[in-house]
Write a structure and sequence with these properties.
Elements: H1 6-18, H2 22-29, H3 38-60, H4 64-76, H5 81-117, H6 121-129, H7 136-164, H8 168-181, H9 188-208, H10 212-222, H11 230-250, H12 254-266, H13 272-293, H14 295-302, H15 306-316, H16 334-337, E1 354-359, E2 363-369, E3 372-377, E4 385-387, E5 396-401, E6 404-415, E7 418-424, E8 430-433, E9 437-442, E10 451-455, E11 466-472, E12 476-479, E13 486-487, E14 495-500, E15 503-508, E16 515-517, E17 524-526, E18 529-536, E19 545-546
Parallel strand pairs: 2-11, 3-4, 12-13
Antiparallel strand pairs: 1-2, 1-18, 3-5, 5-6, 6-7, 6-8, 8-9, 9-10, 10-11, 12-14, 14-15, 15-16, 17-18, 18-19
């Protein structure tokens, strides 16, 4: 064997210890070839003390693994076991404490940055104060919070200045910057109200002057400022109806333009130009009727154009500007009864605003179309949803703005246990009107803008035994899953009800679903489902429907 001698190992260990090379000294002295004499025992004592001191230095320097290793080596060199265990425990406790502090520090910094990015200056301050250690990162974070607050105040000042200079577009832009940087900045809410009132006031003036394109531009400029407020919603609806009426007019669909103008005038936004347009449409209809009563009209009648004259009579009957496109003219003879469907709103290129849908085995459902749904007392003819109740004629309204729904009631409405006059509706909200009317708002599916109202116990609709009232805009899902607007048994299958070109269609669910036409007033079988749809004119009698 050519191993090193005991004397050589001890000399090497002493030299390494003298040079501070404790690891090399430990490897040499701990070897079994180093013997077990007095010299080695003295060396072990010296080395154990040195390792304990170095371990304590590692501990102060937060090098916890190195500290534990040195304490362990000191124990192997013969250092008292109780001391070794005590210092090892100290090292492990210090390591756990350090790791906990580091986790809390990282969490506080991350939360502060997230809140700062979300524009919550106060939240960022609070998270920053929760940081257990003051270091360069925390100081940089404090500077970033302070800088963002200053930029928000600067943007707010610029927005106020722009508003004073009648530059609403810049005011909105700077307001949004300030809100993004500091959502709770003092003066922000007051500025939003000032911008909204100024722009909406100017938009209303443009509307009264007939400058509809400028109305649209002003409302778009507002972006999300004041979204859902009553006047803005009314102006947006007015512009939408005016756009639709203009398209109908451009296509020479004067009757449809008149119907849309009637809806627009029902919004209550006073404007002289609407009276002028209504008068001109009336003159157009009178001219057409005069033509049809002359020689050319006789030829039209001979060619089977009785339906055209019935349609003209339907429009002329509503020349007061408040059209009800679901109302039909009563036929004067049995012969004309066959043409009654043609005089309905479906012939005018749009579906009735209220449709009663009956499905065998599933029940009856009232479908309400439009962005403003009035809720009121049955028989008043002033609300789309008429209830057998003690409500006023038009007690409240459900207003759709984009994909959001709002409940509005000047008399107050109880929503989720608190009284409000205007509130954004969420899925599951419970609405209470008057003393006994309770409704539940539902948004079953995010695939469709459509929503529904579930009638509470004891609440009855004038349309009959309808427990669900559909607020229809977009496809209606029918099936057994929770996201369906109309519940069906699993045996019936799944369907989608939608409108196309003024007609109803039912499509089976699935990528290759086939679409079926659902004519009004006709009992139709689609797959395993029998159903019918009828235009509903209101009143307390279920039978008052038109085909």
């Amino acid at each position: 064997m050519f191993g090193r001698s005991s004397d050589a190992l001890l000399k090497a260990a002493e030299a390494a210890l003298a040079s501070g090379l404790l690891d090399a000294a430990f490897e040499a002295v701990i070897s079994s070839d180093a013997g077990d004499g007095r010299r080695r025992r003295k060396l072990l004592t010296q080395l154990s003390d040195a390792l304990m001191r170095r371990g304590q230095d590692h501990l102060l320097g937060r090098r916890f693994a190195e500290a534990v290793a040195d304490f362990d080596r000191a124990g192997r060199c013969g250092h008292p076991a109780e001391k070794v265990i005590e210092w090892q425990q100290r090292a492990r406790d210090a390591q756990r404490h350090h790791q906990d502090v580091a986790r809390r520090q990282d969490a506080a910094v991350a939360q502060a940055r997230d809140r700062l990015a979300a524009g919550s200056i106060a939240g960022a301050h609070q998270a920053r104060e929760a940081a257990p250690i003051e270091n360069s990162e925390i100081h940089a974070l404090s500077e970033a919070i302070h800088s963002q607050a200053q930029r928000a105040e600067s943007a707010l000042a610029d927005a106020r200045s722009a508003l004073r200079d009648d530059d609403a577009a810049t005011a909105v832009q700077q307001y949004r910057i300030a809100r993004t940087l500091h959502s709770r900045l003092d003066g922000l809410a007051e500025l939003e109200t000032a911008i909204y009132e100024k722009v909406v006031q100017e938009a209303a003036q443009d509307y009264r002057a007939g400058r509809l394109s400028r109305v649209r531009q002003r409302l778009r400029m507002l972006d999300d400022v004041g979204r859902g407020r009553t006047v803005r919603v009314e102006l947006e609806e007015a512009v939408r109806l005016a756009d639709a009426a203009a398209k109908a007019l451009a296509a020479d669909h004067f009757t449809q333009a008149g119907v849309l103008l009637g809806r627009l005038m029902q919004l209550g936004l006073d404007a002289e130009w609407t009276n002028d347009v209504r008068e001109r449409l009336r003159l157009l209809e009178e001219s057409r009727r005069a033509l049809l009563e002359g020689p050319l009209g006789l030829l039209c009648e001979a060619a089977g154009s009785e339906a055209v004259r019935l349609r003209d009579r339907a429009v002329a009957a509503h020349r007061d500007g408040r059209y009800d496109e679901t109302r039909s003219v009563r036929p004067e003879t049995a012969e004309r009864a066959a043409f009654q469907r043609v005089a309905s709103s479906q012939e005018l290129g749009i579906l009735p605003r209220r449709i009663l849908l009956r499905i065998d085995g599933a029940g009856s459902f009232l479908l309400l179309r439009g962005d403003r749904i009035g809720i009121g007392r049955a028989g008043s003819q002033k609300a789309e949803l008429e209830l057998l109740s003690d409500l006023s004629d038009r007690h409240a309204e459900i207003i759709r703005a984009g994909e959001d729904y709002f409940v509005v009631c000047s008399q107050g409405v109880e929503l989720a246990g608190r009284s409000v006059d205007h509130a954004l509706l969420q899925d599951g909200d419970r609405i209470r009107l008057g003393n006994r009317v309770r409704l539940t708002f539902r948004r079953p599916s995010r695939k469709s803008v459509a929503a529904l109202l579930e009638l509470g116990e004891g609440v009855r609709a004038a349309a009959g035994d309808c427990r669900r009232v559909l607020l229809w805009d977009g496809p209606l899902l029918m099936g057994s899953s929770r996201e369906c607007h109309i519940p069906l048994s699993a045996a019936m299958g799944g369907f989608v009800l939608h409108e196309r070109a003024g007609q109803l269609f039912v499509r089976t669910m699935g990528p290759t679903g086939e679409a079926y036409h659902l004519p009004l007033g006709t009992l139709t079988t689609i797959g395993g489902m029998r159903l019918s749809a009828n235009g509903y004119t209101g009143g307390s009698s279920v039978g008052r429907v038109i085909g």
